[in-house]
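Archive transcription. Copying these from loose printouts into the bound notebook so they stop getting lost. Printout 1 of 2:
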Amino acid sequence: MKNNFIEIQSKEDLIKPFQNGEKKPSDFKIGTEHEKFVFHIDTLKPVPFLGESGIENLLLALKKYGWESILEDGNTIGLSRDKSLGGGTITLEPAGQLELSGAPLTNIHETFNELDEHRSQISKEGSNLGLGFLGAGLTPDWSFDEMPIMPKSRYQIMKNYMPKKGNLGLDMMFRSTTIQVNLDYSSESDMIKKFKVSLALQPIATALFANSPFLDGNLTGYNSFRSHIWTDTDPDRTGMLPFVFDGEMSYEKYVDYALKVPMYFIYRDGNYLDVSGSSFEDFLNGDLDELPNEKPNIIDWENHLTTIFPEVRLKSFLEMRGADGGSFESVCALSSFWVGLLYDSESLDSSFDLIKDFNIKQLQELRIEVAKNGLHSIIGGIEIQEIAKKVLMLSREGLRNRNILNENGDSEEIFLDPLQKILSSGKSSSDDLIQKFSNNWNKNLVNMYKEYTF
């Protein structure tokens, strides 16, 4: 750990964290992350950090299950758990969205058990405090002014910077949630292949997991308004990364990209220093006004990498970022979807063949189109729903080849059943929500807090 605080000396030092992520396929793990909104059951309103029924007291109540406080300025702003007790962390997004970052696990059956335990814990402690949890990609009817802000210094820095770069960045921070899965690679070439496949197919995941048609109590005209928000957040650090598809992708190319992404902050002596907009290259040269003549260390670099938000992010693993927040079932479905595609060599090869002729212009158009029309999107005469069916079949074959069974003899394929149901009906969760809002709920979103509880 000490070596992480040694000054970066060369580009090789910047590449090293990616190389250190390489694992033998037999050691590949699955890290699943998901967020949900916390609300007061009696008022259906968001929950502040402080107060008898506040977010901090929810975190403190969860400590009885072996979680330990993560502190900032004396506040419990997250929880962590020893590996012997299951591992993982529970953290807070800017407006108190509760996130479970799961431990690195071997299969989706373990992911299900981890999520089931988490849901049981938060449901019990939340109920004691009068709190519920909503599985949706956006706050359906909370105004921006109603949203609290958690006492994490980095969020205040981001809040101040976001409006300088896009019109919807604050909505991303305070009114959205997502599901993500982190997956491993064995080499640079394996990373490149998985990066290309997952980035090209990220719009398919957006369409399948669309679950955010509302904002401010009304329909937005989008299946995934959360995905649309990302198109107007900050062009410096978001999007489809054209360089990934140019034939020369490498760890070094990603480093070159990340060096150009402006920084948000530097962490020193327990404090976040606002350096928003400054170049990491300037930092490398010792030219930051905030830290004159000081150069970054690997921890600074790794922190910077967490502030980059493309549809797929490279760290010491690949992070899939294209899905809306949603139900308990959708969390396992997302992880199984990508594991089936990327962790079986046959499915990965077939997926690569499927996307190899896609060009970046098509993919950028597709990203915009699926945010609006979801599975009903048609690009260049190609129906997205038909591509999604092919991709789901490849994922299913990959999971079948893995042949990892639970105690009932079920393979990981069972976790794809919600996606099969979506494609059989041709209706995503957003399509169902739009129909209910227009026909069943009389345009009243109160029922959403009952039917879409996590």
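Printout 2 of 2:
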Amino acid sequence: MVSAQSFIMVGKYPKRIKMQTNHSDKDKVVLAYSGGLDTSVAIRWLQERYDLDVVAVAINVGQPPSSDDIIARAKKIGAIAAYYIDAQQEFVDDFVFPSLKANAMYQGVYPLSTAIARPLIVKKLVEIAKKEGAKYIAHGCTGKGNDQVRFDVGINTLDPDLKIIAPLREWVMTREDEIEYARQKDIPIRVKKESPFSTDENLWGRSCECGILEDPWQEPPEEAWEWTTSPLEAPDQPEYIEIDFVDGLPVALNGEKMGGVELIKAVHAIACRHGVGRIDHVEDRLVGIKSRETYECPAAVVLTAAHQSMEFLTLPKDLLAFKKDVEKRFSELTYDGLWFGMLMESLQKFIDHTQNQVTGTIRVKLYKGSAKVVGRKSPYSMYDEGLSTYAVGDSFDHNSAVGFIYCWGLPYRTASRAHKKE
């Protein structure tokens, strides 16, 4: 027996934990490890099926397991090394906030909470693969969803020499088969009470599918919502919050400056209390299937509404219209797993440039499931009360309207005369 290493990653700084493993000259596979049933069984399956040494990597993007526990379980199952990476700050800075500046909503509805986490996870897996000298990366995606595309394309974009193994695409195991396999192989697992739903969660939102949700006619049952209070049971009095933006990013809540992770969590808690952020959507998956999904994205819904309102106040009409097309493309690229392409990089640079004056304060009213912007102010506001008012102080030259209308409608009058016979 020789000493190997496990790591807890906090931000960019690893804390080493010694663990004993057998020395091996086998090739390595880096496994995206959640500590759940599928990926726990996958450690042993990869060893038996491919004769590989497994390096387990758990990445926290807002759904933190116990780092010590998850490392210990990976070690007991047979991983030669294990990493627990707290990537929440990087997730917010490099993925959530760029998406917020893009007002990213797939099909105008879904804030892309799951989709924007995948490229970060891919990035970390590739980094660990290089560090460990691994030739393979394994993930727990099925052959039917979007995530397999996001993982495979992302990995191959960052390092085309890495090979990909997707156990759930290869094995034919039911949940019961996996539990029995774990029992036979003495694999320590934590099997929660079986839920009819399949869920994923991080700082930006929670997705939920399967079960009764597969019937798009049926209203989602209350048990499908885990984070948010039912709007029927939410407080009877509205709550007002103020969000300060600087260059398109939220920097303070109710006058208190906060870091990105802290601010998102604070807005999340308030919005959940008022039942804000529930989404019921039939979306078009990348693989061509229509899928009924529910999402809980409390912070994303509130902050995106606030950010859009700040843009309406500070950006000119033509820029807003053009940016809308860019936002749609940004959302599609993210959903389709093309985060690391040159087009996405170019779109982000354009979006960043539009945010230079998106600075000010937005007041939001939260009440019984709704989040409505009810106030806005900015040192760069393009709203001119003298031009807008109908009361005393009106500074608009009403006589100029006649000439403007004449020029504006001239092409239509000309066309009407030319086509009069028709």
